[in-house]
Amino acid sequence: MADVEVEEFGVTEWDLDNEFNPNRVRYKQSKEDQIYGVWADHGDEDEEDERPSFRGASRGNAHKNISFISGGTAGGSKTEDQTATSEDVEEIEVKIPTKKVRNMAGPSGVFASERSALGSTIGSWEKYTKGIGAKLLLKMGYQPGKGLGKDLQGIQAPVEATLRKGKGAIGAYGPEKPAHRIPGTTGGMNVDAQELKQKREAKQWRKGEKKVKYIYKSLKEVQKEGATFIDHQTGPKVKVIDMTGPEQRVLSGYHQLSQQHHRPDEEPTSKGPQGNFSLPELEDNLDVLIETCENDIKRNTMRIESEKNRITNLRFEQERLLQEQNESERVRETLSKLSDALRELEDGCGPKAMRALSVGEVCMIFRRLVEDFEDEFDQFELSDLAPLIIFPLMKDFISSWQPLEKPSHGTEVFRQWKSILERPHRPRNAPDYFYRLMWEVWCPPVRMSVFRWSPRNPEPLVKLMETWRPIVPAGVINHLVEQIILPRIQQEVEQWNPLMDTVPIHSWIHPWLPFMSQSLETVYQPIRMKLSFALTNWHPSDSSAKLILEPWVGVMSKGSLEAFIATNIIPKLGAVLQSFIIDPRNQEFEPWQWFTAWGDIAPVPALVAVLEKYFFPQFHQVLFQWLQSSCNYDEVASWFSGWKAAFPDRVLADARIREQFRMALDLMNRAVSGQPIQPPRPIDFFPPPPPVQQQARDRFNAGSTPHNLNLTFKEILERRASERGVLFMPIPNRKQDGKQIYQLGTDRQLYLDRSVIFVFNGRTWVPTSMESLLDSC
């Protein structure tokens, strides 16, 4: 049988019995095996507690059949004298019945709690004791320092694995077994050092010895660490009971916990390695000295930084105090100058003034106060001196002033006071003393002059208002215009007679348009009433009516002026056209010129209505009769072109006028082409009624005038509107449900449907009676 035990790979009886046993011991992979797998490192050369290669090795030895070999020793090595071979050995196999017991140990046959204790230190206690093992060996002839056995060939240490240098075969690099070390001889290393090394390695899980690493700190690093240093020495005194050690201790503060002296225990609890000259008390004292030195460095660094910050704060405080001192000196000088200026005002303007100051000198002093002492002027509210000094002084200044005769007197002085009292940077809640100055000082003499003023002579007062308008506040101007000047104009308009006065009224009304254009609306109504009364007996041949109304174009509202012309002028022009005779052989154009003279100011719809009613029926009839006879078509064309050119452009641009000329031109074209022509149909053409209806209508209208028989509902509304001076005209290109929309007055829109008036109220169209509609305009 060979010396080396062979591992069997066959299936054993134990394997068959535990094939389906769920509680059988299984190998548990270590964390290193899980990470690296087959490349995992299963131990170092010096580790003896290694995992066996196969789990069944120990179990196989336990249940393996015992073999007896005769004539030799089991497991012994053969000597040179032995000549018996393995073939001559008779093996007798004896089976020993064993009870199957669950293996509680691991694959190595050692319990997990004992694995860490096993190793090269087994039996080390024999050094310090004289146990039975050593006694028995000595009795058997064992000599210390030599091998075991008869021939001293036995070894004391276990077989050690040796790493081969290269990849060569066995023996290629010389003997691979290390020389046997005799116990007690350590090759130059004393026993204590070897024991210390073994103890140190026993506490480490790595092969190499951990070296002591020293940390060196410079002064800057210690100072840098002091940025977060907390000085506990200056903290409050608190009684602290320390029970972390073997004995109870009473400390005076929490800071002593980090400064306590760690003395070693009487019975050391740690079995860690110690050096030959280990002095724990000295090491602890040195640590305390080092820590104290570091804390002193950090504490001094903090104090230095604190002192630097204090120096910086004191420097800023010094600069601030210097600034305050300079500011105080400046304020003192300013107040001294301000006091001198106020004393000068008091000496020159007070009741006991030695020398009275002029208006210009007082104005210069106030200007100096505003420009040089602006902050103090607002702080001490020096503007309150205005009612005490400026108001009496300015009253004396304009006491003899005649505003209408010298309108520009004092403008420069008041303009300076405005720049002083109404400066742009004054406080919001400051009183408006300039407004009071103009109201209490300037306004009374102007008011008295207006009472003596004649509205028919507006130039002096208008010039006064234009001169003072940039200076006087708007409130004062509006008061004079609306409360004083406008009532005087209204009184004068009530006394005006357009038939007797030779001066046109617009000559003394229009100059006030820049000041009160909206307020004069109350004056226009009586003016239109007086002009309407004056035009009662007016004839279009008199051109004075146009001269009176033409300046009001653009002044009065467009609707009111057109309504006035439609009511008072258009009927007169209609009467002229009604009596106008169109004669191509001897045409008189003077009545036509009276009519066209109003073409630039009269409303176009009213002029078109007059032409359609009185001019074009006669015009078409004359043209038809002329074309019926033998005539020269060139003369007819020249006559047609002459009449068309005689129309004003505003009237000729109307669609109804162009339609009338188109009808005349169509009649001329039919006559030239030889086609039969028919007399033109009248504008208001209706088929003749039956005889019975005609007789009944004649009897019904016996008491009516012929003029009212031909009026439509639209014409009746137009006449009623003109009688009240309200504009009534169609709005171009505006229709509602196919009906033409008309404008009544300035803001009313309506349309007619079967003699019913529909008015738009802003949201919908509502039916309204004629009387209520005219009353609301």
Q: How confident is the prediction overall: mean pLDDT? A: 76
Largest sheet: 5 strands, antiparallel
Q: Helix count?
A: 30
Helix content: 40-55%
The dominant shape is elongated
Q: What structural category arises from helix and sheet content?
A: mainly alpha
Strands, total number: 9
Radius of gyration: 68 Å
Pick out the low-confidence regions.
44-120, 182-189, 265-272, 683-709
User: What is the end-to-end distance?
Assistant: 145 Å
> Beta-strand level of the residues, as a percent range?
5-15%
Q: Strand sequence of the main sheet, in spatial order? A: 5-6-7-8-9
Explain this structure.
11% of the residues are buried. The chain has helices spanning 13-17, 31-36, 56-63, 112-115, 132-139, 191-202, 219-225, 280-349, 359-372, 374-379, 386-397, 411-421, 433-451, 459-468, 474-494, 506-509, 513-516, 521-534, 544-549, 558-568, 570-578, 590-596, 604-628, 633-645, 649-652, 655-672, 691-700, 706-709, 713-723, 770-776, and strands spanning 66-69, 91-94, 240-242, 249-251, 728-736, 739-744, 748-752, 757-760, 765-768. The chain is mostly helical and 777 residues long. A hairpin with a 4-residue loop joins β8 and β9. The strands form 3 sheets. Strands 5-6-7-8-9 form a 5-stranded antiparallel β-sheet. α7 packs across α8 (280-349). It has 30 helices and 9 strands. 46% of the residues lie in helices and 5% in strands. Among the domains are: 1-126, no CATH class; 691-776, no CATH class. Belongs to the TFP11/STIP family. This is Tuftelin-interacting protein 11-like.
What is shown here, in short?
With 777 residues, this protein is mainly alpha-helical.
